[in-house]
Every structure is written in C-alpha cells, then in structure tokens.
Write a structure and sequence with these properties.
about 850 residues, alpha+beta, elongated, disordered C terminus
C-alpha cells in the first residue's frame, strides 16, 4: 500500500510538472471582448445551388471554412482567426485585434468571384448606338467601380446597387470566364510605378478566352471585369489581340487594393454567397481593462476560498488547497491545449468553477467528520466518507455537465466558451477532489502526518453541524411546515410577475434584432441618458434602451465611462442598407462621433429568431435530461425507473420555482437598471438549473441512503426531516463558496452591464436554488408519495418499497449463508468465495457500514 502511495505521488508530481511546462509554452487565446476585434456571423445563400451541389453541401461548407481562414490570415493579416460552423449553414468569423470593421467586411463577405463578360449592350467605337455608355470611374473607400449612363437618359448615372445597373449586367449573358477558371493572381507593375491585377487562367479558362477573343478580335468589343455586382474595369479588346492564359485588369487602382484583390483570388472564390446576419466590433482598450478587473476578482475569490477550507477543515483543508491549486493548473493547461478562447464569460466560468470545485471536498470532509463523531477510526472514516459522498458528487456534477452540453450545442461565441470551460472544470474537479485529495490524504495519514483526529475541525460547528449531530433526536420540522414554505416560494415569485407585467423584461438585440453601440464618454462627462433617449425618440428611433459601464485601467487608474445604446432598426434606420450606414446614423442621432465608438453590434432578424428558439429548447432539453438521468440513477438504487421518477419530478418541481424567480428578477433589474435579457442570461439560467439540482441531489442522496438502511418506527415524514437536517450544513457550505465567488465577481469583475447581469442572476438563482433544494424539493417528494399511495395503496409508498427491498436483500444474504460449504472438492474455494461475495453484498445494501 505504501509503495502504491509513493507511486501515485510521483505520478501527480509528474503530471503537475508536465502541465506547467505545457502551460508556459502554449499561448492563451483571448476572446474579442478581451483582445478587441471583429466578429461576423454569415449565412450561406443556397438558393442558387444546383441539386448536385446540394448533395455536396458538407464539402462546400468545409471549403468555405478554409477560404475564410485563408482570407483572415492572408488579406487581413490576422494571426489567430477563429472560424466556426454553426448549424448547417452558418459561419462565425472572429478576427482578434482587427479594428477596421468596414475593411474586414469587404474582404470576408466578397465572393472574390471574378467574372469577365462580353459587355454586348455597352457602346464601342464600332457600335455607338447601343443603349449603355461607360461613365466615370470611382473609388469607394478603396473599392473601385465603373458607372454607366443610359443613352435614353444621359443625365442619370447608374451605380452599383441601382436595379438598372444590375439589369444591364444581366443583359451581358453568361460570363466568358468566371471564378473557377481563374487559378492564380498577382500584382503586376504597369507604367513604372502603378500596380494592376494580373489573372492567370486554367486550361479550360484559357481555351474559353482564346475562342472568344478570336471571334471578336477585329470588332474591338468591350471586356468587362465584374466582382460582386460591381464593374471593376471595362476596356475594348485591342484589334488583332488574342487572349490566352492570362490578362490584366486595367484601371487606376491603389496598391493596397491590388494586393487585397489578388490575395482574395488566390485564397479562392466563395462557392456560394454569404449574407451577413450579425456583426460586432469591440475596442481593445476596453477589453484590457475588463480583463484586469475580472482577474483581480479571481485572485480575491481564490484567496477567500483557500482561507475558508484551511480554517474550517484544518488538515484536510490544506490537502484540498493543494488539490485546488493543481485543479487550476490542470484546467488552464487543458483549455490551452484545446485552443479554447478565453472570453470574459469563459474567464468568469473558470473562476466560478473554482468555487464549485471545492464542493466535492466539502461533501467528503463533512462526511468524514460525521463518521469520526460516530466513533470510527480516522482511516476508516476517510474510506467511508469518500465512498458515501461519491454518489452525490457524481450525480450533482453530471447534471451540471448535462446542462452545459446543451449550451455547447445551442450556443455560440461567449456562451459556448463559458459552457466549455465549465464542463472541463467539472470533469477535472472530479479527478482532483476524488482521486488526488483522497490519495494525498491517505498517504499522509498512513505516513503518520495528519493522524490526529483533532486536526479535522470536529469542533467547528458554525454552519449547522450542531443540527446534523442531533438530527436523529431533534430534526428540523420541514415536512409538517411544508405549506408555509410553499407560500414563501410563491411570494418570492409574485414581485417578478408584477414587474414582468409592467414591461420590465427587456430583451436585447440578440432576441429582437437591431443595433447595440458602446460609446466612450471621455469627451462627454455630463451627458445624461435622458438627453440621448430624447434625441432618438425625436428622430423616430423608438424603443431604445440605455445603460452605463465603467472600466478602470489597473496601471494608470484612469476610469473610462461607456454608454451602451440598444435600438431597434426603426424610423430612418429602416431605409439604410449597409451596417456601416446604420452605425453612422445611430452615432449621429445620439450626438457622438465615429471616434467615440468602443463597440458596435448588429443582429439580424434570423439570428434573433434562432436565439429565441435556442433559449426555449435549452430549458426544455436541460429539464428532460435531468429528469431521465435522476430517474435512472435513483431508480437503479431502489424500486426501478418509476420510483426514480418521483425523485426527478420533485427536483424539477423545485427548479420551476428557481426559473420563475430568475425570470422575475430579470424583470425587476430591467425596470430599475435597464439590464437586458441576452444569450448570457439564458446561460446563467441553465447554469442555475444545474447547480440547483446539485444541492437537491445532496439531500435526495441522504434520503435514499436512509431509506435503504431503515429505522424502526420511523415514517417518511420523519425520515425526510432527519435527512434534510443531516445534510443542511454541507448544502449551505457548498453554496456559500459559489455565492462568495459570485459576489466578488459582481463587485470587482463585471466590466460590462451584460456580464454584471449574468453574475447577479447567477447569484440570485443559486441562493434561490439553495432554498428550494432544502425547503421545496423534499416536501414535493413527500406530496407526490402521498398522492401515489392514495391512488395505489400503502404498498406503493417509498417506505413500503424500501422495506420490501431490505427484506429481499436479507433473504439473499440468508440464502447465501446457508449455501453448502462442506464440499471438500477442488471447487470448494470457488463456492466459498461466491457465497462470501453475495453475503457481503446483502449486508452492504442493508447497512453500508462494511
């Protein structure tokens, strides 16, 4: 045993050393809200795909990811872009560090599908009577285009976006060559100091160009170069010229545009059009201040948790602190190896997971203290404490993982980052708490260190341990006062319903669609939200919402005030086509300048509808997964799936209370502070669902254990009261570490209103979940059991089912003990071992003291 302990210690040290080395060599990838940058959400336009192309949609999607990545690194020069697929037809493009959203949009959304047309309806020297004539050449922020005039109305200039401009191009028919015919492009020097794009064709493209130019070589017909509905260049084919494997696009282009265009062509043209359904820009200076704030909160939270476990649990608390440090190291390294993006929400999730990682240690240590008070030896108390706490630890963490998996499947961006961080954290916390803490504790106790029971905090009864100790004699009267607790639960919901009726539940642009701009108020120290709201209202932009945030630079201590403005696309914004135009218009109406923009987001109606759908499905799927999981886990232990459903239905009944409290409080905070419901709010709500179930399982696990043991003359009411009283201290302690962490995050680490709202809702939800786990879930279980007994008789009750299960196990043990063991044949040893195993199992199921 000692040699195995030493071997395990060596393994742990090796893992720690390896993790530290990997942590130092792997860079940390921060999200856009930290590093600043641009995020787009695109949707494929599949309406023009052929039936054959539709069967290869998976290959097209993979090809699009490669092209978007190549454009990000090539044309835009982004070192670590993040390209994700979402669903079957959407792409999320994150470009950290990029500040020019207009340039990024031009590069990422263009098809880069160069098409060369025979402009047969544009006049030439030999055909002057054609309906259209080449006009002027323009440069639209680095993107050139050619205008045209119509012979019947020469005063009107046709430009890209005009319906007749598009109809003119359609009149040219099919292109001579198009995107797939162009295999390479490069800048070519012309006239000494000017660059123009040179396109090289494939074999098929060369044949097409040669055939066309031979046909029209004497007629000086116009060749037009078109990109994304804009004519970049138009020029006559020179008399006698035969075009073959390459050609130059003539025009007065900037060097930067030529480079960008040729890079785009080389990275590949998009096989389908992409429509922008969401865009977001974040100022990097704001993200740096926000990161400093949230890291400061994390350090403070860790310090408080460390002091708590050491002071309250003494020697095992020191061991838990070592395991917690390893947890932080292992989790960080794992996330880095996964190339996880550390957004503010993901960092908050990581800090929160530290508070949750202590939960398993608390459950174990409280159980060890309980066994020590019953007179067991220290080594026996440690063994039994870990064994009996394991089922509650696994079940509660499994529910957190299930709700987080739903978020990973349905969420995107910060939501997915938070959920991924939480899942990784929960899995690693199980390893560090159950394996590392246990092994280190056993090794140290076996070595003579920590062998004194006085070092295990037996006299610390600050949070209800006194109640636990006397639970068998003086249990809390929970069931007899259940109606009072149900009334209290209803009363906590009513204020929220009132505020919901008053319109306090304010969905943000992720649910309604629209625009959200963040403006630095450095030059506007006296600005008031009422003034901005009036400007918007007078301009016809109705229904706007305004809130403020403050960022403090940890180095200069300079504070930056930000106004976040959320408006629907209404009034004068409806007539604007491009996101840039809408952004400029909102900024102008609000009274700001473009230099004041710290962040800007546009969410289209399709994304808003998808967010609503994902929110509803998230709650439904999470509830169903928890119902099924708990029904199976508790049903396997006693009475089958139907009995397990009683426990899971009771847990969901308590969760309904928590969800209603959370939604109601969202309406209250929306009315008072203007906070808006976003995708992060749904994340908070689903996390509350997982954590609320965590506390409920701790109590249900004790009820299950007491049912399997049985106490003479005790009814279900007394058993539930005793079980709650035996578990109340550990329920309070496990919740307290998370509650303290969230309070610190709210106070120090909530840089944006959205993140503050997220943390506040988490805090309120976990407080509500702790209450409902103790005073709602078990009384609901009692009510369900009584209802079933009224319908199906006393034998259908939990007490009767538990008694029957115990009798079966006793019979199994008795049958095993009467098995003939006098056989002196060679098989004796085998029969004896089998008999002992069954007998031990029977005794173990009756009373888990073996």
């Amino acid at each position: 045993m000692r040699s195995r302990s030493y071997l395990f210690l060596i393994i742990v040290l090796a893992l720690a050393g390896l993790s530290w080395w990997l942590h130092t060599i792997r860079p940390v990838s921060y999200g856009l809200d930290v590093s600043g940058g641009v995020r787009f959400t695109y949707q494929m336009d599949t309406s023009r795909l052929t039936q054959e192309q539709r069967t290869e949609i998976g290959r097209i999607r993979e090809n699009l990811v490669k092209i978007l990545f190549a454009r990000s690194t090539g044309s835009l020069g982004v070192a670590e872009p993040n390209i994700q697929t979402k669903g079957t037809d959407q792409f999320i493009v994150e470009l950290p560090g990029l500040t020019d959203i207009d340039m990024a949009r031009a590069v990422m959304s263009t098809t880069a599908r160069i098409e060369m047309y025979h402009a047969k309806n544009v006049s030439t020297r030999q055909a002057l009577s054609r309906p259209y004539t080449e006009g002027s050449r323009y440069d639209d922020k680095g993107a050139p285009y050619v205008s045209f005039t119509k012979r019947s109305n020469p005063e009107k200039e046709l430009k890209p976006g005009d319906p007749e401009y598009t109809e003119m191009i359609k009149g040219w028919g099919d292109p001579i060559v198009s995107g797939e015919d162009i295999i390479d492009a490069r800048p070519e020097i012309q006239g000494g100091n000017k660059f123009v794009p040179l396109m090289r064709y494939s074999d098929a493209g060369s044949r097409k160009m040669e055939q066309w130019s031979r046909r029209f070589t004497e007629r000086e017909e116009n060749v037009a170069i078109v990109l994304d509905g804009k004519v970049l260049s138009i020029a006559p084919l020179q008399r006698g010229a035969i075009l073959r494997d390459n050609s130059i696009i003539t025009g007065d282009f900037s060097t930067e545009y030529v480079r960008t265009l040729t890079d785009l062509v080389k990275s590949g043209s998009l096989p389908v059009d992409l429509s922008e359904i969401r865009s977001e820009k974040v100022d990097p200076t704001i993200g740096k201040a926000a990161l400093d704030q949230i890291l400061k909160a994390g350090v403070i939270a860790f310090a408080i948790i460390a002091v708590f476990v050491v002071v309250y649990y003494v020697f095992p608390g020191i061991v838990a602190l070592v395991a917690l440090l390893l947890y932080v190291l292992f989790t960080m390294t794992t996330l880095q190896l996964m190339s996880a993006t550390f957004s503010l929400a993901a960092i908050a999730g990581f800090i929160l997971s530290i508070g949750m990682a202590v939960d398993a240690n608390i459950l174990v240590f409280e159980r060890v203290k309980e066994e020590l008070r019953e007179g067991r030896t220290l080594q026996s108390a440690i063994d039994i404490g870990f064994k009996r706490a394991l089922s509650a630890i696994v079940d509660s963490n499994a529910c957190t993982i299930l709700t987080s998996l739903v978020l990973v499947m349905l969420g995107s961006g910060p939501v997915k980052g938070f959920a991924t961080t939480l899942i990784v954290g929960v899995v690693i916390s199980l390893f560090t708490a159950v394996v590392i803490t246990r092994s280190l504790l056993q090794f140290l106790v076996g070595s003579g260190l920590g062998a004194n029971p006085k070092w295990y905090g037996l006299n610390r009864q600050w949070f209800g341990e006194g109640l636990e100790r006397d639970a068998s004699k003086r249990a809390l009267p929970i069931i007899s006062k259940r109606n009072l607790f149900f009334v209290i639960s209803v009363l906590t919901i009513i204020p929220g319903l009132i505020f919901m009726g008053m319109g306090g539940l304010k969905p943000n642009v992720e649910f309604t669609g629209g625009l959200e701009g963040g403006y630095k108020l450095t030059d506007y120290p006296d600005i008031k939200s009422e003034d901005v709201a009036k400007r918007l209202d007078d301009a016809g932009v109705k229904g706007g919402n305004i809130k403020f945030a403050y960022y403090t630079d940890e180095v200069t201590k300079q504070e930056t005030r930000i106004m976040y403005l959320n408006v629907p696309v209404s009034g004068p914004l409806k007539d604007l086509e491009t996101p840039q135009q809408k952004r400029d218009k909102v900024t102008e109406i609000a009274g700001f300048k473009n230099d004041d923009v710290a962040s800007f987001t546009e969410v289209g109606p399709s994304v808003a509808e998808e967010t609503k759908r994902s929110a509803i499905l998230g709650v439904i799927f999470s509830a169903l997964l928890i119902i099924v999981y708990l029904a199976i886990r508790f049903g396997v232990s006693m009475g089958g799936f139907n009995v397990g459903l009683r426990f899971s239905s009771s847990a969901i009944g308590a969760l309904v209370h928590d969800i209603m409290v959370v939604i109601g409080l969202a309406a209250v905070f929306g009315s008072i502070f203007g906070w808006e419901v976003s995708a992060l709010f749904i994340t908070a709500m689903l996390t509350v669902i997982g954590f609320s179930t965590h506390d409920t399982i701790v109590i249900f696990d004790r009820i299950r254990e007491n049912l399997r043991k049985g106490t003479s003359g005790e009814n279900l009411e007394g058993l539930i009261d005793r079980s709650i009283t035996q578990s109340i201290a550990r329920s309070i302690n496990t919740s307290s570490t998370v509650i303290v962490t969230l309070i610190i995050l709210i106070w120090f680490g909530s840089a944006t209103p959205e993140l503050r709202f997220f943390n506040v809702i988490m805090l309120c939800g976990i407080v509500s979940g702790t209450y409902s786990s103790i005073w709602n879930a078990s009384p609901i279980l009692y009510v369900i059991d009584r209802w079933i007994m009224k319908r199906s008789g006393e034998k259908a009750g939990l007490m009767a089912i538990a008694t029957e299960e115990r009798q079966k196990m006793r019979m199994l043990a008795q049958q095993a003990s009467h098995t003939t063991v006098d056989d002196s044949s060679a098989g004796y040893g085998q029969v004896k071992r089998k008999r002992t195993s069954v007998s031990q199992q029977g005794r173990r199921d009756l009373d888990e003291d073996e």
